[in-house]
Here is the input.
Amino acid sequence: MRLATTLEELRAWRREAPPTLGFVPTMGALHEGHLDLARFARSQNAAVVASVFVNPLQFGEGEDLARYPRDLAGDREKLAATGVDLLFAPSTEEIYPQGFSTAIDVGAIGDDFEGALRPGHFRGVATVVGKLLHVVAPQRLYVGQKDAQQSAVLRKLVRDLAYDCSVTIVPTVRETDGLAMSSRNRYLDERERRAAPSLHRMLRRFVELLKAGEPFEIARTAAAALLEAPGELDYLACVDAESFTPLAALRANCFVIAAARFGRTRLLDNLWFPQ
Ligand code: PAF
Here is the structure.
């Protein structure tokens, strides 16, 4: 696996790259969920690029940018083992040189839920992924379903700005107790880690109750009661998978989404309904 740390090195590699190229953007601290994206990309493309870049633009004030886990040596080994061809691991200055001021704003799709709780977050995500897509120029972009709103934002980015690239959303990888894998799980202390799988149980219960015909608000309140202390619910909702507008019932192509705080750590999860 080649390592590129500058845009110029990446461009030079890209000029010689095979015609079908898959791209897996990450912020590193890789877990099985990320590696699944890389394996999926490997199985569908002649070559695969992965990036590791902790993007300061998507962290708000008081968020965990400084303590976000970093392990480039470990990430490098893991990505090489999945058959990734090129790892792009730039410095902050390489992506945002002095004077950088352009931003990509995807509009209302990023305003609610994570967007409301983390103002500017999706603008930061869209800006960095927009820049990376521009330089990597892949045919296929791979993102994880766990960050459902981010996936919807990136699909919109690709559509609106006419990137010549498809977006593949890869299902969430879970621990054996149902907890969705996330780089942030490592922040959880013992008590928080024990309670964290209740986020997934809550989502499943919400869906069961809705399917059984329970009124929406009653189902939501009953399911929310399953979130175990010290978990504190930020939201439990049902949204259209494309636009992320809230729905008051399950219907085709929707996500049931939830976010909760366990101590200083926010965790997200969702279930998808194709029909
Ligand atoms: O999901 C992530 O790891 C990040 O938000 C992404 C897509 C790599 C952009 O920084």
